[in-house]
Design a protein that fits this description.
The structure is a single chain. The protein has about 775 residues and is α+β, with helices and mostly antiparallel strands. It has 17 helices and 19 strands. Helix 3 packs antiparallel against helix 5. The longest helix is centred in the last third of the chain and has 75 residues. About 5% of the residues have low confidence.
Length: about 775
């Protein structure tokens, strides 16, 4: 709020305010629209379309260079005897580029992916992605449309129109109902403004009814007729605009900022009426032969001129000039220009209709952009001078080759008729002052000197466009004798430039195209539509989506060759499988399915839904829970197996200790028994020695020696027998321990639970 104590502010407040301007009247508005159309038409005719015409001619095999050898006859007629061959450098490079771009953009059914702005927008973004892809691929035949756009784009620029199209059609429904149902239909038709007519006629029929006496046939009255209704359907329409039919404000920086952008077309009266133009107005501006300032570009595009339609009594087939455009005009004079969708007719651009609307978007782009200009340079334009130079070099080489291989005879000058023989550069006679001289005029062959220049200009073409035969797989001999790194550099270098061109097309054309489709769907799709998305019929309501969602164009680009990308993807999938097996949160089935989808697309399968099912959030959660349960069960089973193994080992050790103790006790018992037996025998011997000591002293001594030896042998035999028994017991314990470990392993395998993917581990043999 201004300070009233400030003198400057008070003086400013006392100044009279500017009087609002009056809105433009109809005549001024028409004049301004006509001025914008004429400026846009003149800009295209004078500045852009001559370049398009020349580039199209070069693409079709025309050059500015004439044959090298031109002679004139007596009447002044030009005679071309030199080679007229054309090196179609522009067409060759362009046709090498087109399949690569088509493969990149058409290798997947998913051309665009919309990115949610919030977490709540994620399911809507997924549905918007499926729906806009369906609009592009199915409703507008996106594959054919893309190829047309790439062709125009490579010449100089491509332009397309995206708009909301309201269609109206009539449908007829037959009915044969009772009188009560017919009255209900009539009442419903009176309330429905889309019902155009309802006709019905009663007729007698015989019906069967149940009576107390039984089933009887009685007459009844039915009404048979038809209902004719009007149906209104709207959908997004995408159209490619030919070069010569596109008009653009000459001072704009982008097509969105243009004061006028649209189309200037010659169409039939019938097509004009289909646009909503009244028949009388279309006929008033019609002619039997279209004419335009862009005739040269028009003929270069079509290959022929338009036909004059004479003797045609059907005026609906006459031509009428129609301008459809979006103009930004401040009609209400409030300082802000509004967007009007206009239609003008005839060569004078008479304004037929102008409506405030934002349901139409024009998009334009070029391969090599020019900063702050909507139209840049095309690939064909970059190659035209090289086509001229190479054509001249090849023509000169062929002319030299023909003259070197066809020597001319030399005759004396006294031949008065020799002039007639000199009419040819290649087979004519050469006169000589020496009357006796007869010989041949030999031209040396120097055409091979042009071959290095041809190779030089081919390399220049590769540097300009990034399209090289070595990188496109045309000539494998080029890579012979190179190292692995060198051949990889030769193949990868043009791919880098090709990826740049593809990304330019995606950013300039496809990204604004899909964003326009989203905005038009959100704004004008007021009724749910049923579409087949991911092989399922789904009801889609775009009115709840966010029109400001960003999008990413899906292109099959990557570093290296296709085989290298395939190997890298397989290595990535192997790592994902390892993480899935361990239950890592880094990878879920959703990410693994994305890898499978990329693998299918790399192998040339567009419809990946035929091979891999799209999982819902509930299915992903259930699969994750099942995998966690399986992993927990596997860990529990491993713990139980380890515990069972420990118990078995402890049991085997206890049994072995018990057997060892029993063996020691047996050895001790046998030793005690042997000692007792020895003591008894010693006692008997002592009694015998005492009873007959004198008489049997020698015999006793001998017997004692024998007994000592016997005892020694028995002790040794006993110790050997006890050692053998101990070894046998130890071997038996070892065998039983091995048997127990094998039975434990088989028990663990038999009781192993299935893993998360449903596979049963193989039993160890």
């Amino acid at each position: 709020m201004a300070d009233l104590n400030d003198p400057a502010a008070a003086a400013l407040a006392e100044e009279p305010q500017a009087t609002p301007k009056e809105p433009l009247d109809d005549d001024s508005f028409r004049a301004q629209v006509k001025t914008l159309i004429e400026a846009a038409r003149d800009h295209m005719d004078d500045d852009v379309l001559p370049q398009v015409e020349r580039a199209t001619d070069y693409l079709n095999g025309k050059v500015d260079a004439a044959p090298a050898n031109v002679m004139f006859t007596e009447d002044g007629t030009e005679v071309y005897e030199g080679s007229a061959v054309v090196i179609r450098e522009c067409a060759d490079r362009f046709r090498m580029m087109t399949p690569e771009i088509a493969r990149v953009f058409l290798s997947s059914d998913e051309a665009v992916v919309f990115q949610p702005q919030t977490q709540e927008d994620e399911p809507k973004a997924e549905q918007a992605t499926d729906y806009i892809n369906w609009v592009w691929r199915v409703r507008n035949n996106g594959e054919d449309l893309l190829l047309d756009l790439v062709h125009d784009w490579g010449i100089k620029f491509c332009a397309l129109k995206v708009y909301w199209c309201d269609q109206e059609r009539t449908t007829t429904q037959q009915f044969d109902v009772t009188q009560a149902a017919a009255m209900a239909l009539l009442q419903q038709a009176q309330r429905d403004p889309d019902v155009l007519s309802l006709e019905g006629e009663p007729h007698q029929v015989a019906v069967s009814v149940q009576t107390p006496e039984g089933v009887q046939t009685v007459p009844d009255v039915m009404v048979k007729g038809q209902i004719i209704k009007r149906e209104r359907r709207g959908h997004i329409k995408i159209e490619a605009i030919p070069h010569d039919e596109f008009i653009l404000d000459p001072d704009c920086r982008t097509s969105e900022e243009a004061l006028l952008v649209g189309t200037d077309q010659w169409i039939t009266v019938s097509d004009a009426v289909a646009l909503g133009i009244e028949y009388d107005e279309a006929v008033r501006h019609a002619t039997n032969l279209p004419s335009s300032g862009s005739t040269g570009a028009h003929m270069a595009r079509r290959g022929h001129s338009d036909r004059l339609r004479t003797g045609n009594e059907d005026q609906s087939l006459d031509w009428v000039r129609v301008v459809q455009a979006v103009a930004r005009i401040d009609r209400d004079q409030d300082g802000i220009a509004e967007s009007y969708r206009i239609i003008a007719l005839g060569d004078e651009y008479e304004l037929y209709d102008a409506q405030l609307a934002d349901d139409c978007v024009y998009i334009v782009g070029s391969p090599f952009r020019r900063p702050h200009e909507p139209i840049g340079m095309g690939i064909v334009e970059e190659m035209m001078d090289l086509q001229d130079v190479q054509t001249s070099l090849v023509r000169s080489s062929l002319d030299n080759y023909r003259r070197a291989n066809h020597p001319r005879p030399v005759v004396g000058t006294q031949d008065a008729d020799a002039y007639q023989d000199l009419m040819s550069w290649y087979s004519g006679v050469v006169r000589s002052k020496n009357p006796a001289e007869i010989g041949w005029y030999q031209v040396p062959f120097v055409g091979d000197k042009a071959f290095p220049y041809l190779e030089f200009f081919r390399q220049m073409g590769s540097m300009r466009t990034g399209i090289d035969p070595a990188g496109m797989g045309i000539d494998p001999d080029i890579l012979k004798g190179m190292t692995v790194d060198g051949s990889k550099a030769v193949v990868t270098a043009p791919q880098t430039r090709m990826e740049y061109l593809i990304r330019e097309f995606a950013v300039q054309i496809q990204r604004p195209l899909f964003r326009a489709c989203l905005r038009l769907s959100v704004r004008y799709q007021d009724k749910p539509v049923v579409a087949r998305l991911r092989n399922k019929w789904v009801e889609v309501d775009p009115s709840s989506w966010s029109a400001e969602m960003d999008c990413a164009v899906r292109v099959g680009l990557g570093t290296g060759t296709r085989q290298e990308r395939l190997v890298g993807l397989l290595a990535l999938m192997a790592k994902q499988e390892q993480l899935l097996a361990t239950g890592s949160p880094l990878v879920t089935l959703a990410e693994y399915r994305n890898s499978l989808q990329e693998l299918a697309e790399l192998n040339g399968h567009k419809d990946t839904a035929r091979y891999f099912k799209d999982l819902t959030d509930e299915e992903l959660a259930a699969a994750a829970q099942q995998a966690a349960q399986a992993q927990q069960a596997q860990m529990q089973m491993a713990i139980e197996a380890e515990a069972a193994k420990a118990r078995a080992v402890a049991e085997v050790k206890s049994q072995a200790d018990l057997q060892a103790k029993q063996l020691d006790a047996e050895i001790q018992r046998q030793k005690i028994a042997a000692d007792q037996e020895t003591a008894q025998q010693q006692a008997v011997m002592d009694l015998t020695i005492h009873r007959d000591k004198a008489a049997q002293e020698r015999e006793a001594a001998q017997q004692k020696a024998v007994m000592d030896m016997t005892i020694k042998r028995e002790e040794l035999a006993l110790q050997e027998r006890l050692g053998m028994q101990k070894l046998e017991l130890e071997a038996q314990l070892k065998r039983e321990e091995l048997i127990m470990e094998r039975e434990l392993e088989e028990y663990r395998i038999r009781h192993q639970r299935p893993t998360g993917d449903g596979n049963i581990p193989e039993v160890v043999q």
